[in-house]
Structure formats: structure tokens, C-alpha cells
């Protein structure tokens, strides 16, 4: 929002034209853009803020986290190399001579494909359930807000309550679906275990030869999963620190030579952030929040 638009909106308010929800929505969207811009700026300049006392904690935490992130990435790459080598060794062992009882192996492949399909179905159901739960929480918040603003029998409240019941019903259906898929997965696992028992005798020698490769694959996958979880946490912390640095530098660029030097070359981004802050403030004033 520009000052001209703000002036026009204030005049419109004087004539009774209030658009509080629109202003609050605009302010929220602009705040999201501002946070993204702060993160982008912080990521671009964080190595320049070592000597800014107010950002000392953020800078040294970033130094530590970036180093940890790089170390974990090296570990992930090593795990991937180990995993690839183990897969190649496993494939070489399995293809070294004709596989006995190909019919059983084909059946096993079908079961594995079925389990993979079921696992994807389970993940999809869980994802939909999360979306429904999120929508439910949003609608519940809407009910809480409207309940303070309107009467109990207001049509909007009735509609929201109906929507909440609908979300509850959909969530219950998804729980039933997830349970059904989980049962199929359990049955498939049991079927796979039974088939593996039948294959164990005729494949004992081959399994002994490939056991080390299988163990390496399992360990590598677990290590990769653990490292990726660590990376996700570190990336979140890094992003937060970027945002804090970007916020501080952009706010203090005009009165701090150190911040101005750190933000050098990013004048356009800082200008956009300043405009966003001004627009957010004007939208808050128009919505009655400040």
C-alpha cells in the first residue's frame, strides 16, 4: 500500500467504508513476504556481520551450524557411496548364477510391489488427514472468532459448525482407511515373511554371501535418514538466523555504518522491505490494530 492509497482509504473510512478483513489479509500477506525477504537478505550478507555486536550471537551460531551442515552433507554423500557400492555388490551376487525357484521369486516381487503401493496409499491418506486436520483447526479458530462477534444462531456460525462436523466425518473416514491399509500392510508383511521362509532353504548359500551387503544397505539407509533429519533441523535454525540478521540489518541500515556496509549491493531489496513495513503499518492502522 502506498501513502496515496492509504489517504484514499482513510477518506473512504470517514464515509463508513471499512474493509477490516481485507486490510488484515493484506498485512498478513505482506508480513509473509517481508519475512521471506529478511531471510534472503540474511542469507546473502551473514558473512559480513561478524563485527556487528548486536548480531554476534547470530553470526557465530551460523558459523557453527553451517559447519555442522557441511559435515553432515559429507556424511550423507559417503553413505550414498556406500549404499551404491552395496547395491552393486548385491546385484552381482544375485545375478551370478540362475536363480532357483523363479516362480517364488516372481511372487515375492509381486508382494513387494503391492506393499510399496500400499505404503504410498498410507502416506497419501496420512497427508489428506493432515490437510483435513489443518482445515479443521482453521475453521475452529474461525468459529471462536465469529462466536465473539456474532450471536449463537447467526447463519455464519451455523455454517461453520456444519463444516466442522463435515471435517470430523472426513477425518474419521480417513482413520478407517488408514487402519484398513495398515491391516493390508500387516497381512502383506506376514505373507512376505512366509514366502521368505520357503525361500530360505534353497537360498541359504546366496543369503550368506549377500548378508553383508544387505546389512550395509540397511545401515546406510538408517544413517541417511538420521542425517537428513538433522539437516532439516539445522536448515530450519539457519533460516531463522538468516531472518534475524536480515531484519536487523535492514532496519538499522540508515543509522548504522556497519549495517549499511553489510547491506551494500542489496539496496533494492532493502528498499522493498522498507516499503513492505510501511504498507503493513498502514494496513494495521486501517484495520484498527494500531
How does this structure look, described?
There is one protein chain. The protein is mostly helical and 290 residues long. The chain has two domains: 1-96 and 210-290, no CATH class; 101-202, Orthogonal Bundle (Helix Hairpins). Helix content is 86%, strand content 0%. Helix 2 packs across helix 6 (204-252). It is flat. It starts with a helix and ends with a helix. The model is unreliable at 10-17 (pLDDT under 50).
In short:
This protein is mainly alpha-helical and 290 residues long. It is 86% helix and 0% strand.
Number of strands: 0
Q: How far is the first residue's CA from the last residue's CA? A: 16 Å
> What's the shape?
flat
- Average pLDDT rating: 81
Number of spatially distinct domains: 2
Write down the secondary-structure element order: HHHHHHHH
C-alpha-based Rg, rounded: 29 Å
The helical percent reads over 70%
Strand content is under 5%
For the sheet with most strands, the description reads:
none
- The low-pLDDT segments are 10-17
**Multimerization status:** single chain
Amino acid at each position: 500500500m502506498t501513502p496515496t492509497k492509504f489517504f484514499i482509504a482513510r477518506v473512504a473510512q470517514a464515509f463508513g467504508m471499512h474493509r477490516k478483513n481485507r486490510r488484515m489479509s493484506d498485512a498478513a500477506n505482506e508480513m509473509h513476504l517481508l519475512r521471506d525477504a529478511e531471510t534472503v537478505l540474511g542469507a546473502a550478507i551473514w558473512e559480513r556481520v561478524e563485527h556487528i555486536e548486536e548480531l554476534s550471537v547470530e553470526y557465530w551460531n551460523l558459523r557453527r551450524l553451517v559447519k555442522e551442515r557441511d559435515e553432515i552433507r559429507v556424511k550423507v554423500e559417503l553413505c550414498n557411496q556406500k549404499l551404491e557400492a552395496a547395491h552393486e555388490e548385491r546385484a552381482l551376487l544375485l545375478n551370478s548364477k540362475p536363480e532357483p525357484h523363479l516362480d517364488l521369486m516372481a511372487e515375492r516381487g509381486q508382494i513387494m510391489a503391492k506393499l510399496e503401493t500400499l505404503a504410498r496409499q498410507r502416506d497419501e491418506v496420512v497427508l489428506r488427514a493432515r490437510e483435513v486436520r489443518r482445515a479443521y483447526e482453521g475453521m475452529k479458530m474461525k468459529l471462536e472468532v465469529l462466536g465473539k462477534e456474532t450471536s449463537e444462531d447467526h447463519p455464519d456460525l451455523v455454517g461453520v459448525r456444519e463444516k466442522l462436523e463435515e471435517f470430523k466425518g472426513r477425518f474419521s473416514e480417513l482413520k478407517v482407511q488408514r487402519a484398513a491399509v495398515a491391516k493390508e500392510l500387516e497381512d502383506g508383511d506376514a505373507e512376505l515373511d512366509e514366502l521368505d521362509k520357503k525361500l530360505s532353504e534353497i537360498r541359504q548359500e546366496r543369503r550368506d554371501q549377500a548378508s553383508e551387503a544387505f546389512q550395509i544397505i540397511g545401515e546406510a539407509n538408517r544413517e541417511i535418514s538420521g542425517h537428513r533429519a538433522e539437516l532439516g533441523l539445522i536448515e530450519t535454525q539457519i533460516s531463522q538466523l538468516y531472518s534475524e540478521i536480515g531484519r536487523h540489518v535492514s532496519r538499522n541500515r540508515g543509522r548504522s555504518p556497519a549495517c549499511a556496509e553489510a547491506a551494500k549491493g542489496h539496496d533494492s531489496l532493502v528498499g522493498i522491505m522498507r516499503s513492505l513495513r510501511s504498507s503493513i503499518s498502514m494496513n494495521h492502522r486501517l484495520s484498527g490494530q494500531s
